[in-house]
Every structure is written in structure tokens, then in C-alpha cells.
Amino acid sequence: MIGAGAVACALVHRDKNEAIRHCQAAISKKLRAPSTAEFTDTIVSRGDSGFGTHYYDVAGTVDAQNGFGAMVRGEYTCELTQRPDGQWLVTSTRVL
């Protein structure tokens, strides 16, 4: 039998993976060649803002082709919120 703590941990892990997916999709849209993007060194932090809303900060490294076809590396950050109804809202993206 799986305990409530294990289920809660699994849900948080799933939500963190969803946060990563949404952020990487948003970051990819900012790249010149999004299909070449390779994301590494991803770090996720999660917080609760009350009333069932969770916020996430995602950061990492992205390698992608520039306009000349050369692979370049940048660091990215992304902030997003998961509303009580399960909807995700990306509030900030930045590629350095």
C-alpha cells in the first residue's frame, strides 16, 4: 500500500516536470532555431502563494543554433504559476 506522503511526493514531482515542459516550450519560442534546442542543468524550485496556487522558478542551460547555424549556449530562467484549476501561466522568460 502506498502512503499519502508518497502520493503527494509523486504529484509534486509530476508538477515539477510539467513546469519544466512549459518553460522549455516558452524558451524555445524565443530561439532562432527552436528544433535544435537541447536543455541541460535544469533546476526547479516550487513555492505556494496560497489559495491552491503554486509558483515555480525554472533555470538551466540551453544549446541551440544561431542564425549562422553555429551552436551557442545560453542560460535561461522562467517563472510560472499553476492555478488551482490546474492551468499553467508562464509569467516571465529570459535567455542570457
TrEMBL record:
It comes from the Bacteria. This is DUF4440 domain-containing protein. It comes from Micromonospora tulbaghiae.
